[in-house]
Design a protein that fits this description.
Two copies of one chain form a homodimer. Chain A is an alpha/beta fold. Chain A is built from eleven helices and eleven strands. The first copy, chain A, folds into two domains: 178 residues, Isopropylmalate Dehydrogenase, CATH 3.40.718; 144 residues, 3-Layer(aba) Sandwich (Isopropylmalate Dehydrogenase). In chain A, 45% of the residues lie in helices and 15% in strands. In chain A, strands 3-2-1-4-11-10-5-6-9-7-8 form an eleven-stranded mixed β-sheet, with helices on both faces. In chain A, helix 4 runs parallel beside helix 5 and helix 6 packs antiparallel against helix 11. The interface between A and B is large, with 53 and 53 residues.
Chain lengths: 338, 338
């Protein structure tokens, strides 16, 4: 099954996206016949011509582009021939097994959710972002697909991210935690208190609440939260990184120190979640990988690698099985239809 | 009016708290007769004896201490003679004008809210933390007093932080923003969408939504959010700082670079919200300043300075007036009793 790549999505599209595909092929992450590009022929075809790595990759034409400022649901209706919608249609018709995009995240989520639907038993899809922590990767979800979470949605996020963490990141028994504003039981709002009960009755390796300051300390490998909180967290991490970088850069400029500049580049690359390649939209009936809008060729290549791993490891089949197994118990845990 | 200082609260109490009071006096932030210490006589008195700066400061005995692990509301009942409760009682009886504590935050909030009550018209108190941004201080609230926010609570947080920002931080017309997961109108959950409407109809210098990545960029001086989100943000900022520090330190150790180490100390001190001294609990009928649990003498001295400024500037009187002025309009804005 091919990976459909949205060549038009993101600040640096189409050039960096297309060159990222070339990098992924050169690095052996994917083969040329694992890929199908989607985008405007007049913009993308010239980038493929004459490139020995790319010239045989099929290109599916899409005459429209969803801009970052377009309304996600509105664009579903107004731009039926967008690169996002054309690519998702390839997955829907099983002409592709996965879809990768650095375009308008809301539009990707809305399009995938409405056209592909959810895996059987899944209540809400969630976006999972993987950060590097002090002790290996930590996966946080949801970071923005669902801002009306119920306890059972959060519970299923834990189930899905556990599978992703095992299958794609190779973590044997991920420690699953609930993002909260205190470590003790009984802390937080009703949503997290009820979710905690569901986790405690599950088979997951649930380790309890985690506070924001321990997110990157590596104490656990899966952190569950609702989409509003997760999205804020994702962006605060990005913002603090930029703050430290800018503050350091100003000092470097006032007193040049190449070693310091280099040290800092290492840190920002460590903090960059593009390292783990895109954020999968877990729970949809198909593989959808969302990249940051500013993704360059390295981020694109890493997203290609992660998508291939996701497909090869049969993550969605495993999620479906885990959700089914858990649903059997869940009917007794309350909120079965939420 | 004296500032009642909880000598027993925090990881480094009583020594660092008491020495912080001495530093505040030496720096001219407060005078000796601005202060009253509260705590166990046998622990605190020896620190005062023989110290020329501290020896004349009155000490109010409190036989109990609320531990960090104690239940906030439970401790109200079980520890009536705690340093927190004794100090709040001094404010209640107008024997002190302000209360400063690095102890159990939940207990301080619960005790202050139940014993002092709210300023007339205020629906919910909120904790306001001030961070340094790339362009001066930014005040974020609520960071954890209220995890069941209604739009009108958030709206009042904006009104109160605006006053605090003007009176204590000296910002002429603070730009007020709402923390959200997108900059556009219509983004986010119902809470923030409804709050936005209230702000848009207000006299505040409301600049719209702000995303987490712009929190420390200095675009605005007041950021409003509900307590759960604010507390997560506060701790994520702390955690990312620690992550960067630890990653850098490991590199410094493998390849010693004193200049790098020093640069980094400057940055962490910039990111440290202790710089602005404690976080006021805005909206209670009395001045309550909450310090981080790990506060040292520098943080304590800064909290003393901020408390004195808060009292001298008559922040609570101004909040009361602003809330009253806004309530007159608010009755027409819906949710008047929420």
């Amino acid at each position: 099954m091919r990976i459909a790549v949205d060549a038009m999505g993101g600040d640096q599209a189409p050039t960096e996206i297309v060159l990222g595909v070339a990098s992924a092929i050169e690095a052996g992450y994917v083969r040329p016949d694992d890929v199908i590009l989607v985008g405007a022929k007049d913009k993308v075809a010239p980038l493929l011509e004459g490139n020995p790595v790319l010239r045989d990759i099929p290109l599916e034409h899409a005459s429209q582009v969803v801009e970052m400022c377009d309304s996600p649901t509105g664009s579903l209706r107004t731009k039926p021939d967008s690169s996002i919608q054309v690519a998702v249609r390839l997955v829907q018709k099983e002409q592709a097994g996965a879809f990768v995009s650095a375009g308008n995240t809301g539009a990707v989520v809305a399009c995938a959710a409405s056209m592909l639907g959810r895996l059987p038993g899944v209540r809400r899809p969630g976006i999972a972002v993987t950060f590097p922590s002090l002790k290996g990767p930590v996966t946080i979800l949801d970071v923005g697909a669902n801002v009306h979470c119920k306890p059972h949605h959060l519970y299923q996020y834990g189930v899905m991210a556990d599978i992703f963490s095992r299958d794609v990141l190779g973590i044997e028994s991920p420690r699953v935690a609930l993002l909260n504003i205190g470590a003790e039981e009984g802390k937080g709002n009703p949503l997290v208190r009820e979710t905690r009960e569901l986790f405690e009755q599950s088979d997951l390796n649930f380790v309890g609440n985690i506070e924001g300051n321990h997110l990157l300390s590596g104490e656990c490998q899966v952190v569950v939260c609702e989409g509003f909180v997760g999205n804020v967290v994702l962006k605060v991490v990005e913002g603090v990184g930029a703050f430290v970088q800018q503050t350091l850069t100003n000092q470097v400029l006032s007193q040049p120190n190449p070693e310091l500049a280099q040290s800092f580049r290492k840190i920002t690359s460590k903090m960059d979640y593009a390292e783990y390649g895109g954020a999968p939209l877990l729970g949809v009936n198909g593989m959808v990988m969302i990249m940051h809008g500013r993704s360059d060729r390295r981020a694109t290549a890493n997203a290609m690698r992660a998508s291939k791993q996701f497909l090869d490891a049969q993550v969605n089949q495993h999620i479906q099985r885990a959700i089914h197994a858990n649903e059997t118990d869940a009917a007794q845990l309350g909120d079965p239809h939420g």
